[in-house]
């Protein structure tokens, strides 16, 4: 929580990385699971009904039960996301959610490994990645500037490439959102952010998601700025996952070489192994450490309004898993991950992230462009060796990689 649920705080995450705070959390939940035989555990939260899931079967049941009786719109999310996207699909009520979800899926096209605009997206990524390949070392600050240029081009068009003010405004709103209902809303800043975002959307630049939105002739385009604000927010986590994937590949020469062998062209491609590497990075270091659901009616979990908490690091790093602390991307290719309902890098069920395929495409394409003709090796940061258990908490803000060749 201190590290920032909606926007990460680098200083706090740096401390969390040094102390490896996820490790004792996983051990604690393992003890609780054994003590309570895997049954849900009611937490003592004054004035609230909160249940902690402790089994993979319960994770599957809860996530499959969206939006009723397990709604993704919880009191915590409404308070937090209301700072910058009060009409976003994730916190929409039952009357608005179906149409907004359908609109989001129509634009983001989940289920398609290659979006209809994969070609212009791949070109934008290649152009931006070229600047990074001219660096001798690559750190987070350098990478994230380029990543946000890619994101703005993909979502809003090339005219938005250098509009760092837009994402800076969103960043400030997201920092407020970390405090949820404990921080007053900056209405003026949100309106300025929305105005700026709407100007980019109204331009509907060909080759961008804004153009796809403009082609969606539905009443839900009115809430488009809020949906796009969420996509921009989610792409921040995607950048973290991409940089962490590059870092772990830099420390795993065999996997890095295998990824390089998959790169055989400059156009859009599915890049199955690199996608698996991204998924494995998110398994090892979930960008959404807590999945929350709120019951819409009385269930076996408690009365209506009960919050169900799924702590993903526990299920992704369960010590009973033979691959818990090692980098094993083949999990996502040979069916083992599909057999484990608790491995949920993009959530699961009807409320699964609708941008999952687009994110994997952008991340794997960025990695392909960086690895083409180059190798990376670690320069600074935690040890990510294949010869020892990988760290439970990974601070991406202080990683540094060297380019070789």
TrEMBL record:
Chain sites annotated for binding heme: 353
SUPFAM superfamilies: Cytochrome P450
Pfam families xrefs: p450 (PF00067)
Keywords from the named record: Heme, Iron, Metal-binding
Annotated TM spans: none
GO molecular function ontology, one term from the record: iron ion binding
InterPro entries in the record: Cyt_P450, Cyt_P450_E_grp-I, Cyt_P450_sf, Cytochrome_P450_monoxygenase
Cofactor(s) for this UniProt protein: heme
Keyword Coiled coil tagged: no
Family of the protein in this entry: Belongs to the cytochrome P450 family.
Name of the protein in its database record: Cytochrome P450
Organism in which the protein naturally occurs: Amycolatopsis vancoresmycina DSM 44592
């Amino acid at each position: 929580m201190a590290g920032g649920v909606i926007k990460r705080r680098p200083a706090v995450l740096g401390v969390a990385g040094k102390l490896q705070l996820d490790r004792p959390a996983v051990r604690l939940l393992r003890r609780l699971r054994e003590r309570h035989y895997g049954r849900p555990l009611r937490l003592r939260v004054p004035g609230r009904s909160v249940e902690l899931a402790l089994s993979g079967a319960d994770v599957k049941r809860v996530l499959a039960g969206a939006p009723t009786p397990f709604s993704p719109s919880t009191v915590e999310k409404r308070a937090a996301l209301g700072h910058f996207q009060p009409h976003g699909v994730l916190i929409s009520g039952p009357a608005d959610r179906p149409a907004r979800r359908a609109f989001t899926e129509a634009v983001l096209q989940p289920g398609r490994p290659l979006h209809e605009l994969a070609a212009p997206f791949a070109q934008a990524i290649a152009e931006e990645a070229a600047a990074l390949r001219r660096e001798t070392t690559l750190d987070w600050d350098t990478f994230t500037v380029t990543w946000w240029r890619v994101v703005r081009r993909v979502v809003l068009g090339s005219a938005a490439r250098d509009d760092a003010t837009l994402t800076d405004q969103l960043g400030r709103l997201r920092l407020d959102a970390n405090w949820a209902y404990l921080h007053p809303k900056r209405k003026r800043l949100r309106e300025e952010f929305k105005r700026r975002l709407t100007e980019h959307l109204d331009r509907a630049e060909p080759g961008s998601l804004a153009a796809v939105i403009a082609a969606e002739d539905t009443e839900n385009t009115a809430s488009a700025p809020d949906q796009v604000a969420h996509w921009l927010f989610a792409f921040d986590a995607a950048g973290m996952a991409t940089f962490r994937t590059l870092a772990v590949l830099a420390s795993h020469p065999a996997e890095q070489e295998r990824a390089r062998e998959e790169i055989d062209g400059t156009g859009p491609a599915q890049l199955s192994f690199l996608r698996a590497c991204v998924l494995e990075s998110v398994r090892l270091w979930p960008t959404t450490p807590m999945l929350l659901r709120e019951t819409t009616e009385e269930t076996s979990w408690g009365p209506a309004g009960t919050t169900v908490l799924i702590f993903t690091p526990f299920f992704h790093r369960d010590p009973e898993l033979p691959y818990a602390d090692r980098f094993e991307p083949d999990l996502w290719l040979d069916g083992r991950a599909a057999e484990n309902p608790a491995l949920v890098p993009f959530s699961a069920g009807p409320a699964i992230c609708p941008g999952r395929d687009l994110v994997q495409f952008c991340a794997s394409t960025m990695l392909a462009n960086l690895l083409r003709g180059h190798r990376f090796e670690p320069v600074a940061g935690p040890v990510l060796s294949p010869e020892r258990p990988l760290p439970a908490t990974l601070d991406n803000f202080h990683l540094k990689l060297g380019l070789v060749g």
